[in-house]
Amino acid sequence: MNKAIKTGKENYWSSIKESIWALAPMEDVTDTVFREVVLRLSKPGHVHLLFSEFLSTDGFCHPVGKEKVLHRFHINPEEQELARKMNVKLVAQIWGTDPEKFYQTAKYIAEETEFDGIDINMGCPMKNIIKKGACSALINTPDLAREIITATKEASDLPLSVKTRVGFKSVVTESWISTLLQSEIDALIVHGRIQKMMSEGEANWNEIAKAVQLRNEINPKIKLLGNGDVMSVAESEQKVKEFGVDGVMVGRGIFHNPWIYHPGHEPDMEERLKALLLHARLYSKTWTGEKNWSILKRFFKIYTNSFKGAAHLRAQLMETHGVDEVESIVKAFKEDVKRRE
Q: DUS-like FMN-binding domain: which residues (predicted)?
């Protein structure tokens, strides 16, 4: 391994002085298109970090697999410009088990992409991934986890964080979090569940508070964000006050309200349909010929609710095969609403 690539980018983990609000990395969700939509629906100053889908370091370093995974690192120019104007940082998340592959992937992120930072996935609970010893399975191999962090840090000077859980089959907050706090990371994002819970049950914020206490004792310079069951900025603010975290990462909450980072705003039907069309058009423009249209359908529900006729409209949208059909159906729906007024 060579010397770290110097990027000249700021360490946002130390430069952000207020509570930090972040959108979690989610597979087939937080691509460049959805991140841009979130930015356009957010109030400036109310979101600080947007994370990419997680990319396999094995796939990236494979001569054939690389082209299959690189789309996760794609940033549209429009998203990049909007993020710059809103002072929002874009973070690439990566996962795997081989420190050398982490080094090579991190080096590429620093040299060839516009991401502002790197996050290592040590929290995903999916069975097909933990069978490989990756993500939350790294909780069981702390020495390897430390090697991965060291290799990633050696590859570039980009800000580095780790997203993890409080345990694998059982809660091991003290031993596991203490290990991570003694590594060269700038921030730690702690999900208040263990691996075997997946996304079920209630997130244990008392264990997150324990992680904060450990941070204060071992390495106060590391920022610590909490994650789990937060559905609004108001809830995030409450978590900061009650549990002492430096900020909150939201995951599934974005599906309940894509305007989550525009606190107090209640979008009407017109705004919801406008956002739906924006998302569909951006998706078509960005991914036609590369990604299946069906991936977009999971988003229709987050826009088509809270107004009369939403369920019927959503059922129609689920049968579409492209943006032209979406536009036609939405146009007909709006015309029908106008006739009934």
A: 23-334
- Residue pair 90/35 in contact (Cβ under 8 Å)? The answer is yes
How far is Cα 123 from Cα 193, in angstroms, rounded to an integer? 9
Tokens of 286: 């960005």
| DSSP 8-state assignment for residue 30 | S
Give the pLDDT confidence score for residue 218 in this predicted structure. Answer: 98
- What does each C-alpha distance from 173 to 119, 161, 176 come to in angstroms? 20, 17, 5
One-letter identity of residue 191: H
How buried is 80 (Cβ within 10 angstroms: 0-12 exposed, 13-18 middle, 19+ buried)? middle
Class of the CATH-defined domain 12-256: alpha beta
How deeply is 19 buried, as exposed, middle or buried, from its count of CB atoms within 10 A (0-12, 13-18, 19+)? middle
Give the pair of three-digit tokens for residue 80. Answer: 């990049």
Written as one letter, the residue type at 81 is E
**Assigned token pair, 51:** 């994370």
Distance CA 256, CA 88 (A): 22
Residue range 128-142: average pLDDT? 97
Catalytic positions are: 124
Residue ranges per structural domain of the chain? 12-256, 269-340
Buried b (16+ CB within 10 A) or exposed e, 193-225: bbbebeeeeebbbebbbbbbebbeeebeebbbb
pTM value is: 0.96
Three-class secondary structure of residue 55 per DSSP: strand
R_g over Cα of the chain: 20
Residue-wise pLDDT tens digits, 262-290:
999 999 999 999 999 999 999 999 999 99
